Amino acid sequence: MKVIVTGTGRCGTVYMARLLTSLGLPCGHESIFNLSLRDLNDRLINRDFKYSICSIWDTLQEKDLPKWVDLKTLKADSSYMAAPFLKHPTIADVPVIHVVRNPLQVISSFILDGEFFTYKVKDNVFFPPPKSAHLNKHVFPYEAFMTRHVPLMESVHSPVERACRFYIEWIKMIEAENNGTRKFLRVKIEDQKPVSEDVLSFLQLQKRDNVFSDSTSNSWKKRIRDYKLVDVPKVIRDEFVASAASVGYQL
Description:
By secondary structure, the protein is α/β, with parallel strands linked by helices. The chain has helices at residues 13-22, 40-45, 53-56, 103-113, 139-149, 159-175, 197-203, 234-246, and strands at 3-6, 27-29, 57-58, 63-64, 76-78, 96-100, 120-122, 125-127, 184-188.
């Protein structure tokens, strides 16, 4: 692998996968690091990967997304689910790009678009609130994955607080690799337009014409507003603000 792109989710990982592929570095999205991952060594050797559903299906328009990469040629993967595996010895030397997005937009997209973090959780079993039976069951396995790696989420029942706890711990997990011993680049999705010189230099790639430029790729855009800082419960607000500041966002 040439690089691993990761983040919190809802932050631009699909965009980065398509961008890097268009720059000549074949990159999947949740093709290696996904819910079916059991053994990382085996996954890296065998190229029989599958896309995650959000890589092949446009949820809003209910249509297939165009294929952008041949899975047999992968040199990189872009997935928020890579974060818990970054210390694995097989990939410990692989460069990391941490893609970040305004954290209030991240939690807004998760909760208001994807209907994440709205279930009660106990021992990775999800219980929908009585008035929320309509919520999409596709979030179950993803929330189980999140909770497995952030067990603090189990004791939090407010959706916004749970989302903030996930955000804080996921950022902490990724930024632990930004320690000077590993090649690491943090990029703001807002700064790409479509690709920053930092990314090109980090990957030793040349700028090309007609590179992928839709930084809203795979955005659901269902919500009519974003959460504001005042919506973040006081019990976690200071910690959330500090986490945001650690990756360059002043809330």
